[in-house]
Amino acid sequence: MATPDPVALTQALVRLNTVNPPGHEDRCVEILADLLSSAGFSCRTHEFAPHRTSLVARIGGRPGSAGMRAPLCFTGHVDVVPLGGAAWQHDPFGAEIVDGLLYGRGSSDMKSGVAAFTSAAIACAQQLRDGPGLSLIITAGEETGCEGAFAMASSPQARELLGTAGALVVAEPTGNLPLLGHKGAFWLAAEAKGVTAHGSMPERGDNAVYKMARAALALEKFEFDTAAHPLMGAPTLNVGTARGGLNINSVPDAAELGIDIRTVAGQDHAQVLQCLCRVLGSQIELRKLLDVASVFTPATDPWMQRVFALCAARSGAMPEQRTVSYFTDAAALRLPLGMPPVVILGPGQPEMAHQTDEYCRVDRIREAEVLFTDLITDWCAPSP
Ligand SMILES: [Zn+2]
Question: pTM, whole model, 2 decimals?
Fold first, then answer.
């Protein structure tokens, strides 16, 4: 079986429209599953909604055998964000290459990453059969809150479907620099209830907007009881939306704030929720909208040291220790996979994600395939 060219595979994936919503990720999953099955991977799909298909492809590994490490795992998503309002100079689904840049929605975030690890995995298929093994988790619905990954993680067959992993590579756009983690996202709705009355007789009602406004002011002053993280900085809180009242001449009986909290490694979301409940009091009810944990692996982790060394060997410079602000599927997958160390490492240009005329450098896609092959070979090498 010939190894697919990672650049041609990126082009093939970019040409399939998987803008989320509606997604239609099954289009990409179909061609990837075909390639991987032909190379000897066992493929299973998981649909969280019609045409919203994720794929788990696995090869090698002998689960439970003594002394054998768990498989190495790569993950990436095949949905892409909408095109935005501005006109594109390049066809967003054309995947044309001009001056070494591959243009199209998802070229950087992150069909190039998925293509690079799929090509590397197929190239290594032979050596993977008898070693600790490899699994690829290719997800749907990542851009709208890791929907596909959370659906797999919470499904009754999660354990059997995902297996465990000894280490996890998230091929999101990093320009092929290894990153140690990302902040968590904790989104809440703060609801205030009241009693409606005619606007000319407000004394007969109980105004929910006033309660919501007091809550917003309390949140402006809110301070986390967590020290800043050396790489991620401090946690943040922002009130992003405020809604209340249906018509000007009624006392509103309901109002709601939307709160966007970004947490750092070591912060527990349940504890954050408790603190907020205390600060906001009994007049406000908090409802979870999104709960994505932070992900962090210290640079001192032995596998992370290997990743940094392999990247340095290819690029000629030791990468800096950094984290990113966006969240990834690792937040959903890490626990069911057995809490492996996680690196975020992929060929896309981080500043190109979600942009008009998104592109990926072609040389970075080839470089990523080489790096991913290094990581696989290193993982499969007999331990010293
Ligand atoms: Zn992404």
Answer: 0.92
